[in-house]
Write a structure and sequence with these properties.
- By secondary structure, the chain is an alpha+beta fold.
- It has a single domain, classed as Alpha-Beta Complex (Nucleoside Triphosphate Pyrophosphohydrolase), CATH 3.90.79.10.
- It is built from six helices and eleven strands.
- The strands form two sheets. Strands 1, 2, 3, 4, 5, 6, 7, 8 and 9 form a nine-stranded mixed sheet that branches.
- The relative contact order is 0.22.
């Protein structure tokens, strides 16, 4: 049963909802090649699981920061720098590959600090969405967190061109989840897109947000 997004959702309501729907600890098998990710380009395309690709996928983590604003909850997103080798110019969550000896949670917090200057003192980790297999060979674990207002961002220009917020209510409305297509590596590729006020939110970021919707509101 679909749960309509409550427009007056408070931070406390959101905490309770996430705690009832998402694991607070990343599952031990989150990066196992035997477990097919819930949200992926392959599933959306209707293809069979690509287990060889899963075996070589590199573990990564992102922070899905939900900012507590008086006007309502919003999602903090970035626009990747144009000079990056992969996903340049695309809308993304702050994050990156997991370094040796580092946990996924530590990676998500470190990358948020390094990329946009969002420090841990403002971040309240809540729970984990399903791992997402990207087209570029990363298996991404998204950490949902509440962010207290009062932070000041400092963007790393080598990685991030811009940072902005989009209302959570817009992103959690399935009417805004468009299915787009384009030619990629010789085939028509389908992917989610959630355009909003001139920002083209698509690909892995939109796929993770779609999983966010499915886990919390569908």
């Amino acid at each position: 049963m679909t749960i309509p997004f409550p427009r007056d959702l408070t931070a406390e309501d959101f905490r309770r909802l996430v705690s009832s729907r998402l694991p607070a600890k990343l599952p031990d098998d989150a990066f196992s090649p035997k477990v097919w990710p819930h949200a992926s380009d392959f599933q959306l395309l209707g293809l069979a699981p690509d287990y060889p690709r899963l075996k070589t996928a590199r573990p990564a983590a992102v922070l899905a920061p939900i900012v507590m604003r008086e006007s309502g909850l919003s999602v903090l997103l970035t626009e990747r720098a144009a000079q990056l080798r992969s996903h340049s110019g695309q809308v993304a969550f702050p994050g990156g590959k997991i370094d040796p000896g580092e946990s996924a949670g530590e990676t998500a917090l470190r990358e948020a600090s390094e990329e946009i200057g969002l420090e841990a003192e403002f971040i309240e980790p809540l729970g984990w969405l399903d791992a997402y297999l990207t087209s570029t060979g990363y298996r991404v674990a998204p950490l949902v967190a509440l962010v207290s207002p009062g932070f000041a961002l400092t963007l790393n220009p080598d990685e991030v061109a811009d940072a902005f917020e989009t209302p959570l209510a817009f992103l959690m409305d399935p009417l805004n989840h468009q299915l787009h297509e384009r030619e990629w590596q010789g085939r028509r590729r389908k992917f989610y897109a959630m355009p909003h006020q001139g920002r083209y939110i698509w690909g892995a970021t939109a796929g993770i947000l779609r999983n966010f919707y499915e886990r919390l509101f569908a």
